[in-house]
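Running this now, will post back.
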Amino acid sequence: MKKISKKTKFVETNHKYHQIVGVKSDKEFREKYGNLEFNLNKCLEVFFEKKFQQELEIYEVDEGTTIGAPFRCDHYAKIDDQHVIFEYNGNHHYQSPFKIHTDKRKNKVLKNPEKNTRIKKGSGPGVKYITFKIPYYMQLTKDYARYLFHDQCLLELKKSFFSEDKYTKAIKALYNTDDENKVLAPGLHTSKQTPASYNEEGLKRFLKEVDEMSKKYPSIKHQIIHSFKLFIEDVNRDEKLIIPENEKFQEWFKLEPEEKYLNCIFEREKKQYKF
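Update: finished.
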């Protein structure tokens, strides 16, 4: 039976993910496991078999001197003599025009050894950084892991870091399960930071990312759209709370998700789980 909020009249999620994967509370899940949002570093160490530094500071260089506050990078490691950064892009990377503007500046600086340094004062030696970005609406399904650690790593690092064993180890570390069908699906399940809150540049970023990931792995697009459709049903079909009034997005959203791609966990779905 659906639980409906007396205040909002919205349907609350049918299931709590921490219960599905056998963790006592949501707090304990975040502390010990935490999916990609809270434990990306743990995931990277599994696939690259190497420790990543968190919060690397890189300064922008202009005419031989550093300018302004440093850019903060989430996770850094030197992989086969290449400088690799992984960034977790939260919702503000799709909503704030200032954040999106900063992202563009940051990308240019990180790519250009003449424009960056780790030394606070002076120019110092710069390097070329290779940056991977993890959108906040993504989870570590097997298809996304292949896209990120096989396809993207082959493209950027000329080497694949994906294996079945690493994937199983990673989802155990992030989700407390070794069953890929129990991994939380990409998309939005409870977050109120929906595409309806994105600005125009954020919508372009989102559509470009999803379409790029889905060229080879259509499950990603099907899962994301399915999560949105479930959300819409639970907010009294008030689509404007989830989907923006943007023609390109509306056209993108017309796809009807296919059941064969919906093997993962959707907290709003009417499934029975043994807790």
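The first helix runs from residue 17 to 20. More later if anyone needs it.
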